[in-house]
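Request: Show me your protein:
***
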Amino acid sequence: MGPPPSPPARIVIGRIGVDSRVASVGLNPDRTMEVPAKGPLYDLAAWYRYSVTPGQQGPSVIVGHIDSAANGPSVFFRLGALVPGDTVAVTREDGRTVPFTVYATRSFAKDTFPSTEVYAGTPGPELRLITCSGSFDESTRNYRDNTVVFARESGPPT
């Protein structure tokens, strides 16, 4: 069953140099997922608070920006470089660290994003890391794609 719920507090992805506190995001008025807003939390990873907490059955979702015009590379700038076998450690607010192992990294066009594939329930604890990617649309000031990293819990929380 795993540990009781506890929000993530820190994420470490050694292969791409990520060591970030984890903020929290919810939904925009149009029911799309929020992303970290401009300001002091912009360059942090952020847990989607309507997903399960790390270590619980199902996908826990953590998002982060790829970059910003003002500051350049952001927390998930190198997310697309992750490959199967890479590891991710998420430390929860209760102090437990949940280890995950990447099993896929995929890019999807935002206009055909497979929400069911990314957010649907899973038989065990999993992690989804999401950032923008692909070409930049100057007219909308947004990237056209999303990169999603799929990872499974690779051991009990410690």
Notes: The radius of gyration is 15 Å.
